[in-house]
């Protein structure tokens, strides 16, 4: 009975499954990328990532443990040499699964599983995270320094011209308000005399 054995048995006996995962792990370490079904890739990830973590500490004991899983001296040399040089600083997540569609014969979901730090194309695409700014209702947001300087100059000129236009109007309105206030004062004086 299975009784809580939740991992995917992949339709194989225990010995067949162990041998298959060992061979796939060896191929992954050798070629850095292999194409397989999604179910096998997910099981392979669970199989190979603890081995890579063990390889970070290069001791005879860890070499013997990883050899008991891989059963291949060349794979052990690659793991403790070339692979650990690249992934030594990474705290986990050494593999990446990329789905590639469905196989023509049986419609099985296919994917590529690869070691993360060996994909040069993905490493080039990584750019520093751009600082995002919130959008506001007030304006278009932050402008570049050149655009900002040009905008400030235009705004300054517009303010000066607006002030120049307002100045005669303000003087005229000030004169008019003085005249109105003088008229009101005269009217009050006349009202008092009339009483």
From TrEMBL:
GO terms for molecular function: structural constituent of ribosome. It comes from the Bacteria. Residues 127-195 are annotated as: Disordered. InterPro entries: Ribosomal_bL17, Ribosomal_bL17_CS, Ribosomal_bL17_sf. One of its GO terms (cellular component) is cytosolic large ribosomal subunit. Keywords: Ribonucleoprotein, Ribosomal protein. The keyword Ribosomal protein applies. Residues 141-153 have a biased composition (Low complexity). Residues 156-169, 181-195 have a biased composition (Basic and acidic residues). Pfam families: Ribosomal_L17. Residues 130-140 have a biased composition (Basic residues). One of its GO terms (biological process) is translation. The keyword Magnesium does not apply. Belongs to the bacterial ribosomal protein bL17 family. Part of the 50S ribosomal subunit. Contacts protein L32. This is Large ribosomal subunit protein bL17. It comes from Cyclobacterium qasimii.
């Amino acid at each position: 009975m299975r009784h809580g054995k939740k991992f995917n048995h992949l339709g194989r006996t225990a010995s067949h499954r162990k041998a298959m995962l060992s061979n796939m792990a060896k191929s992954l370490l050798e070629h850095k990328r292999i194409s397989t079904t999604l179910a096998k890739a997910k099981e392979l990830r669970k199989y190979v990532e603890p081995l890579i973590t063990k390889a970070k500490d290069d001791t005879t004991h860890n070499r013997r443990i990883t050899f008991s899983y891989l059963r291949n001296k060349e794979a052990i040399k690659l793991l403790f040499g070339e692979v650990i040089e690249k992934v030594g600083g990474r705290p986990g997540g050494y593999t990446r699964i990329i789905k590639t569609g469905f196989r023509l014969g049986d419609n099985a979901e296919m994917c590529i599983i690869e070691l993360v730090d060996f994909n040069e194309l993905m490493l080039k695409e990584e750019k520093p995270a751009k600082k995002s700014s919130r959008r506001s209702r007030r304006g278009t947001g932050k402008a570049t320094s050149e655009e900002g300087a040009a905008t400030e100059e235009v705004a300054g000129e517009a303010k000066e011209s607006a002030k120049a236009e307002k100045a005669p109007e303000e003087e005229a309105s000030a004169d008019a308000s003085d005249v109105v206030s003088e008229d009101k004062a005269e009217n009050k004086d006349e009202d008092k005399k009339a009483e």
